[in-house]
Amino acid sequence: MRSHIFWRIVIGILVGISIYVDSINHITIINPLNEKFIINRDTQLRRGLDTLGGLQTLLQADVSNCNSVSQSDLQVTRQILENRANALGVGEIVMQIAGQCRIVAEFPGVSNPEEVVAALQQTALLEFVDMGSNPLPEGTTVLTDHDQPSTGTQPSTPPLTSTAAPSAATTPVANATAQPGATATAAPQVYHTVMTGAALDTVTVQAGTVPGSYQVAFTLKSDGATVFSDYTSSHVGQYLAIVLDKKVLSAPVIKTAITSGQGIIEGGFTSATANALAVQLRYGSLPVPVKVVESQTVGPTLGAESIRKSLLAGSIGLAVVVLFMALYYRLPGIVADFALISYSLITLMLYKIIPITLTLPGIAGFILSIGMAVDANILIFERLKEELRSGRTLQQAIDLGWSRAWPSIRDSNTSTLITCLILYVFGNSFGASMVKGFSINLGLGVLISLFTAIIVTRTFLHLVLDNLKLGEHPRWFGL
């Protein structure tokens, strides 16, 4: 009885949370003590390319021999490209490695395909920029003199082996004296690039001097070490910003001259932020150059019609399953229907929280899992009827029905999960996102259906049937 009461409370809380999450599109929970967000996230259903429309692009390593591309470099390239696309505000991106040297990229809902394709093909530029004594905040876009047109007095790209002048960063272009009679215009400030990411040799994360803190340690190549030594010796106490694609990542202060070619970046890093900065430093440019070999825009019209038909099919399927269970298994079947509704609410909640991108195959996997969700109930109810015909009490029949049907339920669902795993590995390896989406949704549906069949249905049955006398209502159990 204590076990039944416990599960009633758990199921009630879980269903209540599911109804709440399913009915809203954004969750906001604020700590009343400091008025900071505890939870602040979007819970709208994520839709895939085939249901929302957008851009699908096939990228290929721009090398002469695909076999020379390592999978680790290709994986890092995929990560950098995804981060770059996210910076454009493109949400719900799907990027997968396909084969030896290709990456399949999907951008649902994108409205500017030309900008996305251009951003994917550009080469990331990592720069160490002199900020003087007034650093810019993280995320600020800056204009540097790297790759800028020459002014005649300053080289457009300072050579790596040259020593940067101390005043290079403190004299902005905007301070030039206007000619008499000319209209003064506020030109943007141009900062001096001391060196680029090509000078870095290694970047690692290590524990800081304060317990729980982290540092980013780096070493420089020989030419870079010379430039860095000369620059830091004359700029102690000033700020040297780390800039990726003209945006400030971090702006540490130069505490001492770095003459050994080895340095440490401190700044109150956590493990996650230190590793993120290390990845950006280590892979400021793409390890593998890529080119767009195919790009196509997918319209949302077909997706909208397919969603409408999928929802209709799912509604019909759910209604048929509910009617069958109620008519054939009577009262236990009605109890199973309520468990099936709980299954649908919990599944939808997980889709929104995880979140899972709903493609058409993924929707098909969910619809298929609705039918499979009652498989375990059918096995259990058949065993329940057999135990009742053998003269067991109702409570004994419920417990024996579950325990004796469990081996069949376990084996059948295990085989389905193995199939889902194979489909997931196949889809992930070859960039078949639709196969991957189908396997994820079906596998998640199987796991949730096991919970609802073994826990929810059983708890509901004890709640409804423990106080009934079987001899007075045999037809309620299909006997």
Number of helices: 11
Distance between the termini: 27 Å
What class do helices, strands and sheet pairing give?
alpha+beta
Helix content: 40-55%
Strand content: 15-25%
Give the CA-based shape.
elongated
Order of helices and strands: HEEEHEHEEHEEEEEHEEEHEHEHHHH
Strand order of the largest sheet: 8-9-7-12-13
Number of strands: 16
Mean pLDDT figure: 77
Gyration radius from CA atoms, angstroms: 31 Å
Low-confidence stretches: 149-184
Major sheet summary line = 5 strands, mixed
Helices, strands, pairings?
Elements: H1 2-23, E1 26-30, E2 37-42, E3 46-47, H2 49-52, E4 54-61, H3 71-87, E5 94-98, E6 102-108, H4 113-121, E7 126-132, E8 143-144, E9 190-196, E10 200-207, E11 214-220, H5 222-233, E12 239-244, E13 247-250, E14 262-269, H6 271-282, E15 290-298, H7 300-353, E16 357-358, H8 360-373, H9 375-389, H10 394-430, H11 433-465
Parallel strand pairs: 3-16, 8-9
Antiparallel strand pairs: 1-2, 4-6, 4-15, 5-6, 7-9, 7-12, 10-11, 11-14, 12-13
Helix pairs in contact: 1-7, 1-11, 7-8, 7-11, 8-11, 9-10, 10-11
Describe the structure.
The chain is an alpha+beta fold and 479 residues long. Helices cover 48% and strands 19% of the residues. It contains 11 helices and 16 strands. Strands 8-9-7-12-13 form a 5-stranded mixed sheet. A 4-stranded antiparallel sheet has the order 5-6-4-15. A 3-stranded antiparallel sheet has the order 10-11-14. β12 (239-244) and β13 form a beta hairpin. α10 (394-430) packs antiparallel against α11 (433-465). The chain is elongated and about 95 Å long. The model is unreliable at 149-184 (pLDDT under 50).
